[in-house]
Amino acid sequence: MACDPKTLLAAAPLSGQSEMPEYWQVPVRDGTFVSHMKSVLFQGLCLMSVSRTTLHDHWKSKVSDEGWEKHRVLIVTRLNNFNIAAGLVLATSSAFLCSNAPHGSLLQYDSVYSYFLSLAALAQSLCGLLLGVAVVNVYDSCDREWSKDVRIPPIRMTRYMTNMQVLTNTRFRLCVTLILIAMPVLELASSIICLMLALLAAVYASGL
Questions:
Q1: Cα separation of 117 and 78, whole Å?
Q2: φ, ψ of residue 132 in degrees (nearest 5)
Q3: Contact at 8 Å (CB) between 143 and 61?
Q4: For residues 121 and 195, is the Cβ–Cβ distance under 8 A?
Q5: From the CB of residue 94, how many other CB atoms can be counted at a distance below 10 Å?
Q6: Which of 13-27, 62-76, 163-177, 180-194 has the lowest mean pLDDT?
Q7: Can you spell out the DSSP letters for 118-165?
Q8: Cβ within 8 Å of residue 178, ≥6 positions away
């Protein structure tokens, strides 16, 4: 007799509700260069995404609904702030690209180097804004169980359950989720750097 997929999903055991899974932890360094780089890169990814070098605090937020709500609001608020800053960079770089510098101005932002740097800032801020809005929409709508580790035995897996796989079920899914959260930060930082270099190039082109 066929079973209801939703009933099987509800009855599936949840692992790691109190203890953080091994693939959530920082990779162990065994003295080799590869293990050292994996550990450093994972810690850097955690720092850029959740502002911590480990995911212990992030895992604690998934144990209770109250903790998850605080974490969700914190992440969404921070991403919204980044989106506002990316919008400002986008508007500034667009103004430089769509106008000509006044004759004799100290900022010749219509020079070749300044133009291409402003174009790079525009592209980076636009990508960061699109990613930030997408991550906010997904993260703001998912609940604690959707974002938490759920292990369902393959014998009980159905098409419905496959579509309901959560964001952090494996190390790969976890890293992809952290990368998507960190990408708006990286895009904003790179766009600001490009815009600053464009301004320096504009000053240099003025002949000062």
A1: 27
A2: -60, -45
A3: no
A4: yes
A5: 15
A6: 13-27
A7: HHHHHHHHHHHHHHHHHHHHHHHH--HHHHS-----GGG--HHHHHT-
A8: 45, 46, 49, 50
Could you give the CA distance from residue 4 to residue 199 in angstroms, rounded to a whole number?
62
CA–CA separation, 164 and 154 (whole Å): 14
CA distance 51 to 178: 11
Rg (CA), the chain: 23
Q: What is the pTM of this model?
A: 0.74
Q: Do 95 and 125 touch, CB atoms closer than 8 A?
A: no
52 HSE (CA, 13 A, CB side): 12
**127-153 pLDDT per residue, tens:** 999 999 999 988 887 776 665 544 444
